[in-house]
């Protein structure tokens, strides 16, 4: 293999990493904007956010195409192959984060006129800030190849789960207090669930970074695993 | 390349396909059992279903490890590479289906003692049967490499979305009628949403089969795309 080909492969790996970083930036922005649209009942921002998700989908296709092309053309081995596989996996998680955030923006349009939702939406806003930080930190750990930072994100996911549990109970209480609260509370319930799911995808990305750096899958059970399996009926249930 | 290596690679591809089929069978069973546990308030079945998801997770790891090993060792090109990439993508969708079904089983435990949930759960059961059929058909289309059948599954997803919309409204009505219905209705709302998401994953698999057979991504917009973006507040919102 000539020096030229090696350099070119490195360029492709760099291009892949840049696309992941750009995709991650978009996903962070869609989450922040969707939550802001929900809190301010800003229909115009919600609409822009819904449309912005397209760019994330486009980037996922581009990353996947480049990754498959690289495998076919370069036939990478070991760490190089892991880089390419990791890019496919991370872009798939970022695409789902975009979808979940977009769904929050759609709910912002749906509950537009209901002012009773304001207080309840504050909890969603707090959750969203934590999720944004998780997403930012895990993307930084990808750029810096910092496994310890990725593991911090992985361990901190329980914080989001705890907030989700608390918001879930708060929203149930609103619904029971006044039936007029039921519709918007239901939408906020799904919004909170979406942010909890976004946290899970950040955790997935942390696991991929672990695999990328060590070559082994992370076998340790997730911190929150089954924490809510046998809880009373008014507790939320985790997805994993 | 010797005859021996070609045969062995074919064997690996067959092993991959068999593991996908097995994983798909498990995912179907977890969905059916979780819904039955919900309908019959069968806590013992719910517990078995929650534990059965582990086998799906194990199979996903095995498929991914074999797929990466095959890429590294065999350096497949074109259609062969697509087979391996498709296996990774399909196993990832099946793993999510297992998680979503497991979450329904957890809710079956949570709403165990609430008899008011019986009628509402019938709609969930109908949805689950449709989702099971979608999953079965898309797995058959994978085994038979039948793109037309995969496209049928893809187009039929709107049926599940319509059922979800109907159940969503029904459950909101229950909640408004009697505050004692709120807790179980919320759990059933998430169960219905999970089945709708399972349908989306069957649709993803259909798209992967299209890519596998044609070498091109399916660019056509999904049938349900944005159908509920601007609907009134008591309508559910799609995730995509």
Summarize the structure.
2 copies of one chain form a homodimer. Chain A is built from 6 helices and no strands.
Characterization of the model:
- 2 copies of one chain form a homodimer.
- Chain A has 240 residues and is mainly α.
- Chain A has a single domain (3-214), classed as Methane Monooxygenase Hydroxylase, Chain G, domain 1 (Up-down Bundle), CATH 1.20.58.
- Chain A has helices spanning 3-40, 43-74, 78-110, 117-143, 147-177, 182-214.
- The longest helix of chain A has 38 residues, at 3-40.
- The termini of chain A are far apart.
- Residues 225-234 of chain A have low confidence and may be disordered.
- At the A-B interface, helix 2, helix 3, helix 5 and helix 6 of A face helix 2, helix 3, helix 5 and helix 6 of B.
- Chains A, B: Keywords: Cytoplasm, Phosphate transport, Transport.
- Chains A, B: Residues 20-107, 124-208 form the PhoU domain.
- Chains A, B: This is Phosphate-specific transport system accessory protein PhoU.
- Chains A, B: InterPro entries: PhoU, PhoU-like_sf, PhoU_dom.
